[in-house]
Amino acid sequence: ARRSNETSIVTEPTSAVCLRRFRFMKARRSNETSIVTEPTSAVCLRRFRFMKARRSNETSIAQNIISSSNYSSTYSSIDGLSKINECKIHHQVVALTVAELGHLDTEQSLGTACPDEDMIDCFQDVFEEWNKDPSFKAILMKSSPAKRPAFCAGGDVKSIYEQGTPVDPTSSSSTTPPEHFFFQEYKVNHAIATSSIPIVSFWDGVVMGGGVGISMHGKYRVATENTIFAMPECAIGLFPDVGSMWWMNRLLKRPVARYLALTGSRFYPADLLYTGLATHYVPSNQLENLEAALIEATANDSTNRSAGEGNEDVTAKVLMSFHEMIPTDDCFLVNNKQDIEEAFRGETVEEIMANLKKKDSVFAKSTIEVLSKMSPTSLKLSLEGLKRGANCKSIGEDLQMEYRMAKACMRPGSDFFEGTRAVLIDKDHSPNWNPSTLEEVTDELIEEFFAPIENDWPIPSASARL
Description:
Layout: H1 16-30, H2 42-56, H3 60-67, H4 71-76, E1 84-90, E2 93-98, E3 101-106, H5 109-112, H6 117-131, E4 138-143, E5 150-151, H7 155-164, H8 179-193, E6 199-203, E7 206-208, H9 210-213, E8 220-223, E9 228-230, H10 244-251, H11 254-263, H12 269-275, E10 280-281, H13 287-306, H14 314-322, H15 332-335, H16 337-343, H17 349-357, H18 362-373, H19 376-389, H20 395-409, H21 415-425, H22 443-447
Parallel strand pairs: 3-4, 4-6, 5-7, 6-8, 7-9, 8-10
Antiparallel strand pairs: 1-2, 2-3
């Protein structure tokens, strides 16, 4: 309906949200604000106005947003407002083009502003547009909420849970199946992983789940003293997804990858630099200066190219000029390196548990306790996913595999819905896993998660850099 502009197609069971979005898209094309009326939300109306401002080169709306946010101090120091080429709002995402640096700012963080399909659509639209524009030199992704910035902290999982859990148990669930979110989200992950434009992410806070997907596949990840990184999906009956079965195998040693995936352990700045998950470390009080330097560097690069000079990744030099060395020889992973390597070299979850029980260390005892609380199905599924992900030939092939896994996890009565209920909804932290033991999770059961399906996630043609 969105493509054909025929409202007749937009009928039940299409949701009111879809209809509202269609009306907005139609208004956006025709520049007729009369179409943008109730029940269209104020967010959609604001989004339309930004698109209209963008076409007419009106900076007044952009200036209002900039002056009322944390952008003002960054841009005022370098006359940034005059460098704003485009400014638009998509749901909770602010997309700015300043000089030749694209900005994606999750305005209230992916955790508090749950990344619904509007937000995912925004990322898709922006990356499609920016990747086609040869003038772009880099993309900066960050989060600017009222409190500590975060790249996702459970909000996306709660949104998926609500989609798949009907209020009336006798009724069918939402007209949009919960796995549809993964279908769209993985397109964004693939676009980031295969982008020819250097992508810089500021990890100035919690980085988990879907937030890992939109940042880990970029070229540069900047940690600060506030960074906390984790993939705790086994605690909610899921598995580390968003391409994790791909990058874990290629950035981490096998025992460390398995440790991270199965335990959901939190990594801090020193651990992230030690493993290479973070490419740089910059104190949080220097991020505004770093952002300003990136803007200047991309603008200067444009001038240099006009004069016939080379076209290089100008972000690398800027990032290194702000990068600070911090000690990593006493980080958690170094201190427990031997235990991790000896225990997690096991080829089954049962072997890993047996290896840990042979040890008398504090690490081994605490890790056994953590693993015993996880979904037995998720543990075995994640380990098998890592093995198969290591053999994938492209990020696209990996994401197709992960989509099959995710769709299987969305089955009614699965550990995902029970785990999410226990951890994020009721918060009683007492999930009733089914099956409840590792022994009950058979190889045949795990194999079902990898079986070909109808309406599979299509593998795009581009391949990943990683």
